[in-house]
């Protein structure tokens, strides 16, 4: 009798408690297949990245493909590497053929570049109907161009492969390549810590921004690139996210979130989806994780990884 009463009281207490917060995030990688990085050949990078994702028990990541990269000096074998990602359970999507900035092209030429990439991708296993804007440039302040490309994507049954979490990993990789080429000593443990910390912090920033702008926690989409640093430390990054309470989900799940249908109208259309929605709703700055500002991120890298005096 007493046990039944206690169980009933416990159930009532649980029902009165607010639902547990959901911090969910999908991992996506841009610019595949990329050229040789500061440490690894393209083949080594793909092998390590697949192994790291498997070790971290990430069931599905998304790779946004630039077929024009196949013509680069390190492009040989790129088609095989993309197929290897798919064979490992990951998916692929369109990131344009030549990685152009929309601000530098007319809408028709830009859409033609997307079509060229679609022609290469068509019929391949693992393909999803998503397009990610290179440089996250959706037209800048030119709303007519923005709307023309939006309409063009709709006509092609492509949806925006938007981003909500960004740590500018391309800058960390670029600074590492620069240091390596200059023969500077690189503190690899410090580089690992900076890489992981930056991306975990960027996810935490996005979670807080979403609560302010939307009053809820959408499924987040993290922007990464197919880099040597990801190949080395993707499992560490996933562990860091999970330590903060994040659940790693598929991109398929992420792009079913209601924000996938949003068409934010802001003075400039460039950047991540969550930032644009916060701007549209009047959330005051900062709406952008601070290490995406290179004047902040680059000195931090030089101090922590290269141990240079600032």
Describe the protein's topology.
Layout: H1 2-16, E1 23-32, H2 42-55, E2 62-65, H3 78-87, E3 91-94, H4 107-121, E4 127-131, E5 137-140, H5 143-155, E6 159-160, E7 165-166, H6 169-181, H7 188-214, E8 220-225, H8 228-243, E9 246-248, H9 251-254, E10 269-270, H10 273-280, H11 294-304
Parallel strand pairs: 1-2, 1-8, 1-9, 2-3, 3-4, 4-6, 7-8
Antiparallel strand pairs: 5-10
Helix pairs in contact: 2-3, 2-8, 4-5, 7-8, 7-10
At a glance:
This protein has helices at residues 2-16, 42-55, 78-87, 107-121, 143-155, 169-181, 188-214, 228-243, 251-254, 273-280, 294-304; strands at 23-32, 62-65, 91-94, 127-131, 137-140, 159-160, 165-166, 220-225, 246-248, 269-270. It has 310 residues and is an alpha/beta fold.
Counting DSSP E segments of at least 2 residues, the number of strands comes to 10
What is the percentage of strand-forming residues? 5-15%
Query: Can you give the mean pLDDT?
Result: 94
Distance between the termini: 70 Å
Quickly count the helices. Answer: 11
Please identify the structural class as seen in this structure: alpha/beta
Computed over alpha carbons, the radius of gyration is 21 Å
Low-pLDDT ranges: 1-19
Largest sheet: 8 strands, parallel
Outline: globular
Give the proportion of residues in helices.
Answer: 40-55%
Spell the H/E element sequence.
Answer: HEHEHEHEEHEEHHEHEHEHH
């Amino acid at each position: 009798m007493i046990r039944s009463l206690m169980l009933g009281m416990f159930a009532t207490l649980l029902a009165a408690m607010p639902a547990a917060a959901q911090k969910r995030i999908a991992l996506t990688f841009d610019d595949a297949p990329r050229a040789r990085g500061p440490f690894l050949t393209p083949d080594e990078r793909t092998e390590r990245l697949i192994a790291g994702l498997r070790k971290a028990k990430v069931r599905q990541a998304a790779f946004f493909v630039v077929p024009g990269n196949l013509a680069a000096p390190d492009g040989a074998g790129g088609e095989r590497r993309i197929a290897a990602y798919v064979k490992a359970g990951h998916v692929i999507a369109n990131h344009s053929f030549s990685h152009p900035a929309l601000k530098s092209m007319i809408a028709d030429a830009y859409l033609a570049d997307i079509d060229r990439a679609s022609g290469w991708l068509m019929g391949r296993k693992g393909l999803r109907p998503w397009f990610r804007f290179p440089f996250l440039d959706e037209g800048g302040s030119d709303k007519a161009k923005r709307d023309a490309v939006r309409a063009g994507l709709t006509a092609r049954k492509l949806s925006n492969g938007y981003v909500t979490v960004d740590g500018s990993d391309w800058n960390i990789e670029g600074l590492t390549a620069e240091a390596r080429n200059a023969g500077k000593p690189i503190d690899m443990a410090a580089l690992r810590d900076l890489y992981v910390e930056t991306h975990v912090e960027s996810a935490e920033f996005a979670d807080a921004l979403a609560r302010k702008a939307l009053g809820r926690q959408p499924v987040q989409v993290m922007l990464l690139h197919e880099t040597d640093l990801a190949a080395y430390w993707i499992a560490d990054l996933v562990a860091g996210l999970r330590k903060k309470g994040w659940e790693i989900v598929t991109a398929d799940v992420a792009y079913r979130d209601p924000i996938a249908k949003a068409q934010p109208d802001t003075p400039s259309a460039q950047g991540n989806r969550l930032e644009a929605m916060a701007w549209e709703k009047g959330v005051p700055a900062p709406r952008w994780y601070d290490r995406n500002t290179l004047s902040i991120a680059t000195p931090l890298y030089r101090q922590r990884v290269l141990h240079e005096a600032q």
